[in-house]
Amino acid sequence: MERSEQGTRGDQSHSQCWAWPEDQGHLGPEERDRPVLSPQTQPQPRNGLSLSLLPPELLLAVLSRLPPRVLLKRCRHVCRTWRSLVDSKALWLLMLARDHSASGRALLALVRSCLPPAGDATPGPLIPFCSLRPVGRNLIRNPCGQEGLQKWSFQHSGDGWVVENNLIPVPGAPSQTCFVTSYRWCSKKQILNLEAEGLWPELLDSGKIDICVSDWWGTRHECGGRYKLLVQLLDANKTILHEFSDMRVTIAHPNSMYFQVTHVFSNIKVGVRFVSFEHLGKDTLYWAGHYGTRMTNSSVTVRVSQP
User: Fold this and answer.
1) Which residues are the signal sequence here (predicted)?
2) Which CATH fold topology does 53-132 show?
3) Model's pTM, two decimal places?
4) 6 band by pLDDT with thresholds 50, 70 and 90
Protein backbone atom coordinates (compact mmCIF):
# COMPACT_ATOMS: atom_id res chain seq x y z
CA MET A 1 0.00 0.00 0.00
CA GLU A 2 2.81 2.37 0.88
CA ARG A 3 4.42 1.69 -2.47
CA SER A 4 1.15 2.35 -4.26
CA GLU A 5 0.59 5.67 -2.43
CA GLN A 6 4.11 6.80 -3.17
CA GLY A 7 3.65 5.81 -6.74
CA THR A 8 0.39 7.74 -6.92
CA ARG A 9 1.91 10.83 -5.36
CA GLY A 10 4.81 10.55 -7.76
CA ASP A 11 2.45 10.25 -10.71
CA GLN A 12 0.44 13.27 -9.60
CA SER A 13 3.34 15.58 -8.85
CA HIS A 14 5.41 14.54 -11.89
CA SER A 15 2.71 13.48 -14.29
CA GLN A 16 4.59 14.87 -17.29
CA CYS A 17 8.12 13.91 -16.31
CA TRP A 18 8.23 10.70 -14.31
CA ALA A 19 6.87 7.15 -14.48
CA TRP A 20 7.41 3.87 -12.67
CA PRO A 21 8.97 1.01 -14.57
CA GLU A 22 6.66 -1.95 -14.98
CA ASP A 23 9.05 -4.50 -13.52
CA GLN A 24 10.99 -3.47 -10.41
CA GLY A 25 11.35 -6.91 -8.89
CA HIS A 26 15.11 -6.90 -9.46
CA LEU A 27 15.62 -3.52 -7.73
CA GLY A 28 16.38 -2.85 -4.05
CA PRO A 29 13.98 -0.89 -1.79
CA GLU A 30 15.71 2.45 -2.37
CA GLU A 31 15.88 1.94 -6.13
CA ARG A 32 12.22 0.88 -6.29
CA ASP A 33 11.19 4.15 -4.63
CA ARG A 34 13.20 6.26 -7.10
CA PRO A 35 11.20 7.55 -10.10
CA VAL A 36 12.73 7.23 -13.55
CA LEU A 37 12.28 9.12 -16.77
CA SER A 38 9.49 7.86 -18.95
CA PRO A 39 10.59 6.93 -22.48
CA GLN A 40 7.78 9.13 -23.80
CA THR A 41 9.11 12.21 -22.01
CA GLN A 42 12.89 11.79 -22.47
CA PRO A 43 14.46 14.64 -24.48
CA GLN A 44 14.87 13.83 -28.15
CA PRO A 45 18.17 14.54 -29.92
CA ARG A 46 18.17 17.59 -32.13
CA ASN A 47 18.92 17.24 -35.78
CA GLY A 48 22.28 18.81 -36.71
CA LEU A 49 22.70 21.24 -39.57
CA SER A 50 23.48 19.43 -42.80
CA LEU A 51 26.50 20.78 -44.66
CA SER A 52 24.58 20.28 -47.88
CA LEU A 53 22.27 23.12 -46.81
CA LEU A 54 25.14 25.60 -46.91
CA PRO A 55 25.46 27.92 -49.90
CA PRO A 56 27.88 26.49 -52.48
CA GLU A 57 30.57 29.08 -51.76
CA LEU A 58 30.54 28.26 -48.02
CA LEU A 59 30.51 24.53 -48.65
CA LEU A 60 33.45 25.00 -51.01
CA ALA A 61 35.36 26.84 -48.28
CA VAL A 62 34.67 24.05 -45.78
CA LEU A 63 35.72 21.29 -48.16
CA SER A 64 38.92 23.11 -49.12
CA ARG A 65 40.20 22.64 -45.56
CA LEU A 66 40.04 18.86 -45.74
CA PRO A 67 43.00 16.70 -46.78
CA PRO A 68 42.95 15.67 -50.46
CA ARG A 69 42.71 12.00 -49.52
CA VAL A 70 39.50 12.62 -47.56
CA LEU A 71 38.04 14.68 -50.40
CA LEU A 72 38.73 12.00 -52.98
CA LYS A 73 37.97 8.89 -50.93
CA ARG A 74 34.93 10.10 -48.98
CA CYS A 75 33.50 13.51 -49.79
CA ARG A 76 33.38 12.90 -53.53
CA HIS A 77 30.98 9.99 -52.97
CA VAL A 78 28.48 11.77 -50.70
CA CYS A 79 26.21 13.20 -53.41
CA ARG A 80 26.26 14.79 -56.84
CA THR A 81 26.69 18.28 -55.44
CA TRP A 82 29.74 17.33 -53.41
CA ARG A 83 31.15 15.39 -56.32
CA SER A 84 30.86 18.40 -58.61
CA LEU A 85 32.62 20.60 -56.04
CA VAL A 86 35.47 18.13 -55.51
CA ASP A 87 35.84 17.87 -59.29
CA SER A 88 35.98 21.64 -59.71
CA LYS A 89 39.07 23.74 -60.32
CA ALA A 90 37.84 26.28 -57.75
CA LEU A 91 38.19 23.90 -54.79
CA TRP A 92 41.83 23.03 -55.43
CA LEU A 93 42.83 26.62 -56.19
CA LEU A 94 41.19 27.66 -52.93
CA MET A 95 43.24 25.02 -51.14
CA LEU A 96 46.46 26.48 -52.60
CA ALA A 97 45.35 30.03 -51.82
CA ARG A 98 45.34 29.34 -48.07
CA ASP A 99 49.14 29.71 -48.06
CA HIS A 100 49.53 33.48 -47.65
CA SER A 101 53.34 33.47 -47.55
CA ALA A 102 55.33 35.06 -50.35
CA SER A 103 56.32 31.64 -51.69
CA GLY A 104 52.70 30.46 -51.46
CA ARG A 105 51.44 33.45 -53.44
CA ALA A 106 54.16 32.96 -56.05
CA LEU A 107 53.25 29.29 -56.40
CA LEU A 108 49.54 30.08 -56.80
CA ALA A 109 50.28 32.66 -59.50
CA LEU A 110 52.50 30.18 -61.36
CA VAL A 111 49.93 27.39 -61.11
CA ARG A 112 47.17 29.65 -62.44
CA SER A 113 49.30 30.64 -65.42
CA CYS A 114 49.98 27.00 -66.32
CA LEU A 115 46.41 25.69 -66.13
CA PRO A 116 44.07 25.05 -69.09
CA PRO A 117 42.00 28.01 -70.39
CA ALA A 118 39.70 29.79 -67.96
CA GLY A 119 36.59 28.30 -69.58
CA ASP A 120 37.65 24.82 -68.47
CA ALA A 121 36.30 24.31 -64.93
CA THR A 122 37.78 20.83 -64.45
CA PRO A 123 40.70 20.54 -62.02
CA GLY A 124 43.00 18.96 -64.61
CA PRO A 125 46.44 18.49 -63.03
CA LEU A 126 45.49 20.21 -59.77
CA ILE A 127 44.31 17.06 -57.99
CA PRO A 128 47.64 15.17 -58.20
CA PHE A 129 49.52 18.42 -57.64
CA CYS A 130 47.67 19.25 -54.41
CA SER A 131 47.68 15.63 -53.27
CA LEU A 132 51.40 14.98 -53.80
CA ARG A 133 52.70 18.49 -53.04
CA PRO A 134 55.82 18.18 -55.21
CA VAL A 135 57.02 21.78 -54.79
CA GLY A 136 59.33 22.17 -51.80
CA ARG A 137 59.28 18.47 -50.95
CA ASN A 138 62.33 16.21 -51.15
CA LEU A 139 61.65 13.91 -54.10
CA ILE A 140 64.44 11.49 -53.15
CA ARG A 141 63.14 8.38 -51.41
CA ASN A 142 65.02 6.96 -48.43
CA PRO A 143 67.65 9.73 -48.44
CA CYS A 144 69.49 8.61 -45.31
CA GLY A 145 69.15 4.84 -45.40
CA GLN A 146 66.42 4.85 -42.77
CA GLU A 147 64.69 2.19 -44.90
CA GLY A 148 67.81 0.12 -45.41
CA LEU A 149 68.85 -0.28 -49.04
CA GLN A 150 65.37 0.25 -50.48
CA LYS A 151 64.35 2.73 -53.22
CA TRP A 152 67.85 2.94 -54.77
CA SER A 153 69.50 1.11 -57.65
CA PHE A 154 72.85 -0.13 -56.35
CA GLN A 155 76.10 -1.25 -57.88
CA HIS A 156 78.12 -3.09 -55.25
CA SER A 157 81.90 -3.39 -55.48
CA GLY A 158 84.46 -4.42 -52.90
CA ASP A 159 82.37 -5.36 -49.88
CA GLY A 160 79.39 -3.39 -51.19
CA TRP A 161 77.08 -0.93 -49.47
CA VAL A 162 75.85 -0.97 -45.89
CA VAL A 163 73.83 1.41 -43.71
CA GLU A 164 75.34 2.68 -40.45
CA ASN A 165 74.67 5.38 -37.89
CA ASN A 166 76.26 8.77 -38.47
CA LEU A 167 79.51 9.30 -36.60
CA ILE A 168 78.59 12.97 -36.18
CA PRO A 169 75.16 14.60 -36.60
CA VAL A 170 74.10 15.91 -40.01
CA PRO A 171 71.92 19.03 -39.65
CA GLY A 172 68.37 18.77 -40.94
CA ALA A 173 68.58 15.08 -41.80
CA PRO A 174 65.36 13.09 -41.28
CA SER A 175 67.44 10.23 -39.87
CA GLN A 176 70.95 10.13 -38.43
CA THR A 177 71.97 7.17 -40.57
CA CYS A 178 74.04 6.98 -43.74
CA PHE A 179 75.07 4.77 -46.65
CA VAL A 180 78.68 3.56 -46.42
CA THR A 181 80.92 2.43 -49.30
CA SER A 182 83.83 0.01 -49.45
CA TYR A 183 87.33 -0.15 -50.99
CA ARG A 184 86.15 -0.10 -54.62
CA TRP A 185 83.76 2.27 -56.35
CA CYS A 186 80.21 1.74 -55.09
CA SER A 187 77.37 3.64 -56.75
CA LYS A 188 73.67 4.14 -56.17
CA LYS A 189 71.07 5.94 -58.22
CA GLN A 190 67.48 7.15 -58.38
CA ILE A 191 65.63 8.35 -61.48
CA LEU A 192 62.74 10.64 -60.57
CA ASN A 193 59.71 10.91 -62.84
CA LEU A 194 58.62 14.52 -62.35
CA GLU A 195 55.15 14.01 -63.84
CA ALA A 196 54.54 11.04 -61.55
CA GLU A 197 55.48 13.30 -58.63
CA GLY A 198 52.56 15.63 -59.45
CA LEU A 199 54.09 18.17 -61.84
CA TRP A 200 52.67 18.60 -65.33
CA PRO A 201 54.26 19.56 -68.69
CA GLU A 202 53.05 23.17 -68.82
CA LEU A 203 54.45 23.82 -65.36
CA LEU A 204 57.74 22.06 -66.08
CA ASP A 205 58.14 23.98 -69.34
CA SER A 206 57.16 27.36 -67.90
CA GLY A 207 60.76 28.45 -67.34
CA LYS A 208 59.74 29.57 -63.85
CA ILE A 209 60.90 26.66 -61.72
CA ASP A 210 64.28 25.66 -60.33
CA ILE A 211 65.47 22.18 -59.43
CA CYS A 212 67.69 22.21 -56.35
CA VAL A 213 70.12 19.41 -55.51
CA SER A 214 71.89 18.73 -52.21
CA ASP A 215 74.00 15.86 -50.91
CA TRP A 216 76.03 15.24 -47.75
CA TRP A 217 79.13 13.07 -47.77
CA GLY A 218 81.86 12.35 -45.26
CA THR A 219 84.63 10.03 -44.13
CA ARG A 220 85.88 8.26 -41.05
CA HIS A 221 88.74 9.70 -39.03
CA GLU A 222 91.15 6.87 -39.82
CA CYS A 223 90.61 6.63 -43.58
CA GLY A 224 90.14 9.08 -46.44
CA GLY A 225 87.48 8.80 -49.13
CA ARG A 226 86.65 9.59 -52.74
CA TYR A 227 83.26 10.98 -53.73
CA LYS A 228 81.46 11.68 -57.02
CA LEU A 229 78.06 13.22 -57.69
CA LEU A 230 76.31 13.21 -61.06
CA VAL A 231 72.86 14.79 -61.55
CA GLN A 232 71.19 14.94 -64.96
CA LEU A 233 67.92 16.47 -66.15
CA LEU A 234 66.42 14.27 -68.85
CA ASP A 235 63.63 14.61 -71.39
CA ALA A 236 60.90 12.04 -72.02
CA ASN A 237 63.33 9.92 -74.06
CA LYS A 238 66.00 10.10 -71.30
CA THR A 239 68.14 12.46 -73.39
CA ILE A 240 70.37 14.68 -71.23
CA LEU A 241 69.30 18.35 -71.24
CA HIS A 242 71.26 19.59 -68.20
CA GLU A 243 74.05 18.03 -66.15
CA PHE A 244 75.95 18.76 -62.96
CA SER A 245 78.89 16.76 -61.60
CA ASP A 246 81.27 17.10 -58.68
CA MET A 247 84.24 15.07 -57.45
CA ARG A 248 85.97 15.32 -54.08
CA VAL A 249 88.78 13.56 -52.22
CA THR A 250 89.69 13.68 -48.53
CA ILE A 251 92.59 12.17 -46.65
CA ALA A 252 92.56 10.67 -43.18
CA HIS A 253 91.71 13.32 -40.59
CA PRO A 254 91.70 13.28 -36.78
CA ASN A 255 87.94 13.89 -36.78
CA SER A 256 85.11 12.44 -38.83
CA MET A 257 83.68 15.07 -41.16
CA TYR A 258 80.69 15.72 -43.42
CA PHE A 259 80.57 18.08 -46.39
CA GLN A 260 77.57 19.40 -48.31
CA VAL A 261 77.40 19.68 -52.08
CA THR A 262 74.63 21.83 -53.58
CA HIS A 263 73.55 22.93 -57.03
CA VAL A 264 70.55 24.77 -58.49
CA PHE A 265 69.35 24.16 -62.05
CA SER A 266 67.83 27.44 -63.29
CA ASN A 267 66.57 28.52 -66.72
CA ILE A 268 65.59 24.93 -67.36
CA LYS A 269 65.09 23.93 -70.98
CA VAL A 270 61.70 22.89 -72.31
CA GLY A 271 61.12 19.16 -72.13
CA VAL A 272 62.62 18.14 -68.77
CA ARG A 273 60.66 15.18 -67.41
CA PHE A 274 63.14 13.16 -65.31
CA VAL A 275 65.95 13.77 -62.83
CA SER A 276 68.77 11.23 -62.57
CA PHE A 277 70.60 11.43 -59.23
CA GLU A 278 73.70 9.26 -58.83
CA HIS A 279 76.62 9.31 -56.43
CA LEU A 280 79.65 7.08 -55.97
CA GLY A 281 82.28 6.55 -53.33
CA LYS A 282 85.13 4.43 -52.01
CA ASP A 283 87.95 4.66 -49.49
CA THR A 284 91.50 5.77 -50.29
CA LEU A 285 93.39 2.97 -48.52
CA TYR A 286 91.72 -0.12 -50.02
CA TRP A 287 90.81 -1.52 -46.63
CA ALA A 288 88.49 -4.50 -46.52
CA GLY A 289 85.17 -3.72 -44.89
CA HIS A 290 83.33 -0.42 -44.97
CA TYR A 291 85.75 2.44 -44.45
CA GLY A 292 84.78 4.34 -47.61
CA THR A 293 82.78 7.49 -48.25
CA ARG A 294 79.60 7.95 -46.24
CA MET A 295 76.56 9.57 -47.92
CA THR A 296 73.33 10.85 -46.42
CA ASN A 297 70.51 13.41 -46.58
CA SER A 298 70.41 13.51 -50.38
CA SER A 299 67.70 15.75 -51.79
CA VAL A 300 66.12 16.95 -55.02
CA THR A 301 63.51 19.68 -54.61
CA VAL A 302 61.50 21.82 -57.01
CA ARG A 303 60.86 25.48 -56.21
CA VAL A 304 59.41 28.53 -57.92
CA SER A 305 62.19 30.55 -59.50
CA GLN A 306 63.16 33.62 -57.55
CA PRO A 307 62.98 36.92 -59.45
Assistant:
1) none
2) Monooxygenase (1.20.1280)
3) 0.79
4) very low
